[in-house]
Amino acid sequence: MSDAAQPTAAEVRAAAEAVKAALDRHLEAVERRSGDDDPAVYDAFNELASAAEEYDELLYERYDEVTPFEIPSPEDALPAHEGPVDALSVLIRRDYAVAQPQRLLAQAQRIADLDPDVAPNGLPAAAGVVGGSVQAALGVLFGEYEPDEIASRHKEFGLEEGDSTLWVAAVEELPEPGEWLSSPFEGADPQAVVCRFDVSSVFDDDEMDDLEEV
Question: Is pLDDT at 27 greater than 60 in this prediction?
């Protein structure tokens, strides 16, 4: 965008003042609302969203900066499943960082050394399988423990938690055994989600920001 097309500093300031006024109107509507579906709150929310979007655009065009908040749009939300629930598909994703590789390697080797099978040379069959390979260590770890146990003991294994999400989705009928194993999440339908649970440090950051503002 050329400098001539950029908004002026005064226009950005006016947009900021519009956001402040919209915030006040939204809070007043919430304080006076007559019920969960009060149209005044709905209108004030839309006015605030519009003012915030306008300010965000002008701020970026003028100063190449963005705001730290985002107004969710209707298409961002998962619609509630209203059909029958005769069968369920539970989709889980958990992210981990390998924070302490040496701890991971040591724990995996300990598991391998406890393998009850004995090789012909008299050593445990799994001894030495880990070595210095993080990939091998992860294979041993996730082969030995269920995902829920790893989640509860991740620090013990040298892992650091990232985001996680769990979706409970309705399906018409259970698929044939082995049918989806090659692409387990390919057929996930957001419209079939009955409920979901998200865990992320971003939520903790939001809570801390709220506490700091009090």
Answer: yes
